[in-house]
């Protein structure tokens, strides 16, 4: 499992929140307040945590943060299914693709992050140079 590929995935996904925020807004369930803030915070966290995966000292905590973030994205995936896999003026896929995204791809991504977390959280507290 390629750590650089995973870090790059989150880095570019996070950047895309700022490059094309209109892609994400229709995917944010309407019952969540402050969609602009949610989009921006998600983007920042994906960029920061994705880059932090590449730093052994921060890898464990970055992976935990990314797994939490991915769990927090589940309502968005469910909402996308509820709206039939087609967001207003945005992403539109067959409904079965939306289901595969939630039931297969999302858990695989969480598993990939889990597998990349590093051996121990002790790497965070080990002084540099030891």
What does this structure look like?
With 130 residues, the chain is mainly α. The protein has seven helices and no strands. The protein has one domain. Helix content is 67%, strand content 0%. The protein is globular. It has helices at residues 3-19, 21-24, 35-52, 59-72, 74-82, 95-115, 122-125.
Note the main attributes of this structure:
single chain, about 130 residues, mainly alpha, about 0% strand, globular
The number of distinct structural domains comes to 1
From the spread of the alpha carbons, the general shape counts as: globular
Q: Tell me the number of helical segments per DSSP (H or I, 4 or more residues long).
A: 7
Q: Could you give a short account of the major beta sheet?
A: none
Structural class: mainly alpha
- The H/E string reads HHHHHHH
Question: Average pLDDT value?
Answer: 90
Poorly predicted regions are none
Helix content class: 55-70%
Quick summary:
With 130 residues, this protein is an all-alpha fold. The protein has one domain (3-125). The longest helix is centred in the C-terminal third of the chain and has 21 residues, at 95-115.
Task: Provide the fold topology.
Layout: H1 3-19, H2 21-24, H3 35-52, H4 59-72, H5 74-82, H6 95-115, H7 122-125
Helix pairs in contact: 1-3, 3-4, 4-6, 5-6
């Amino acid at each position: 499992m390629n750590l650089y590929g995973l870090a790059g995935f989150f880095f570019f996904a996070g950047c895309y929140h700022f490059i094309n925020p209109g892609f994400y807004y229709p995917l944010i369930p309407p019952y969540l307040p402050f969609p602009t803030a949610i989009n921006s915070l998600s983007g920042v966290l994906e960029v920061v945590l994705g880059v932090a995966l590449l730093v052994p000292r921060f890898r464990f905590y970055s992976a935990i943060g990314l797994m939490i973030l991915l769990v927090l994205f589940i309502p968005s995936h469910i909402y996308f299914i509820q709206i039939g896999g087609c967001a207003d003026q945005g992403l539109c896929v067959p409904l079965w693709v939306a289901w595969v995204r939630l039931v297969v791809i999302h858990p695989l991504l969480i598993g990939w992050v889990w597998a990349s977390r590093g051996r121990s959280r002790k790497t965070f507290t080990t002084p540099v140079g030891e």
